C-alpha cells in the first residue's frame, strides 16, 4: 500500500513489471486483504514493497510535484484492444486532458468513443497509465473509477505543477508516447 494525498494505493508487480496500481476503497481493500483480485486470479499478496521500491519512490515524487513521467516497466494484463488504448492514454501529456472522442480518433476508431471510455475505466495501472486525463465530451469528469473528487484533484495537481515548472524554465515535450521534461 502507498499512502497519497487522495487515498491509499494498492501496488502489485511481477518480474515483468507493474501489473496493478489501484486507488483503494472499502470494497477493493477487502478484496486485497482477502488475498485475491479478479484481474490477477493466481497472484499472491505480500505486504512488502521492497521489490517495488523504485515504483513507490516515483509515485511519491509524482504526488510531491517532482515527477511528470513515470519510468517503470509495465506488465498490464489485457486484450490487444485494451493494451492499445492504455498505451494511447500514456501519450496524453502531463497536465493536459483529452476527450474520449479525441482519443478514439487518435486510435483511428472515431466511432468507438464509448468503447474506449469503458476500456479506460478498466485500466489496472492508475497514475502511470493516466486514465484520469481522458475526460467526457464536454469536459465531464464523471466515469473515473477513482471518483470525480479524486480525478479533479489529480488534474488540478498536474496543472499547478506544470505551470510552476514552466515558470522556472521547464518545458514539456511529448515524445514516443511519453511525457518528459526538458530544461530550456
TrEMBL record:
UniProt catalytic activity: a 4-O-methyl-thymidine in DNA + L-cysteinyl-[protein] = a thymidine in DNA + S-methyl-L-cysteinyl-[protein]; a 6-O-methyl-2'-deoxyguanosine in DNA + L-cysteinyl-[protein] = S-methyl-L-cysteinyl-[protein] + a 2'-deoxyguanosine in DNA
Enzyme Commission code(s) on record: 2.1.1.63
Protein name as it appears in the record: methylated-DNA--[protein]-cysteine S-methyltransferase
Organism: Eiseniibacteriota bacterium
UniProt record, GO biological process: DNA repair; methylation
Alphabetical UniProt keywords: DNA damage, DNA repair, Methyltransferase, Transferase
Domain annotation Methylguanine DNA methyltransferase ribonuclease-like: ranges: 2-75
Source domain of life: Bacteria
Family statement drawn from the similarity comment of this UniProt entry: Belongs to the MGMT family.
MF (Gene Ontology): methylated-DNA-[protein]-cysteine S-methyltransferase activity
Domain Methylated-DNA-[protein]-cysteine S-methyltransferase DNA binding: 81-159
Keyword Protein biosynthesis listed: no
Amino acid at each position: 500500500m502507498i499512502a497519497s494525498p487522495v487515498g491509499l494505493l494498492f501496488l502489485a508487480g511481477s518480474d515483468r513489471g507493474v501489473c496493478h496500481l489501484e486507488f483503494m476503497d472499502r470494497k477493493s481493500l477487502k478484496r486485497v486483504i482477502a488475498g485475491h483480485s479478479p484481474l490477477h486470479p493466481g497472484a499472491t499478496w505480500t505486504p512488502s514493497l521492497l521489490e517495488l521500491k523504485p515504483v513507490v519512490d516515483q509515485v511519491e515524487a509524482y504526488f510531491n510535484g517532482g515527477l511528470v513521467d513515470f519510468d517503470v516497466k509495465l506488465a498490464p494484463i489485457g486484450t490487444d484492444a485494451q493494451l492499445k488504448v492504455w498505451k494511447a492514454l500514456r501519450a496524453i501529456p502531463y497536465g493536459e486532458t483529452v476527450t474520449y472522442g479525441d482519443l478514439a480518433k487518435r486510435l483511428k476508431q472515431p466511432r468507438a468513443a464509448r468503447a474506449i471510455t469503458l476500456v479506460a475505466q478498466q485500466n489496472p495501472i492508475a497514475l502511470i497509465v493516466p486514465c484520469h486525463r481522458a475526460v467526457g465530451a464536454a469536459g465531464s469528469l464523471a466515469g473515473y473509477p477513482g471518483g470525480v473528487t479524486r480525478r479533479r484533484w489529480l488534474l488540478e495537481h498536474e496543472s499547478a505543477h506544470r505551470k510552476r515548472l514552466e515558470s522556472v524554465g521547464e518545458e514539456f515535450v511529448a515524445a514516443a508516447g511519453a511525457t518528459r521534461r526538458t530544461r530550456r
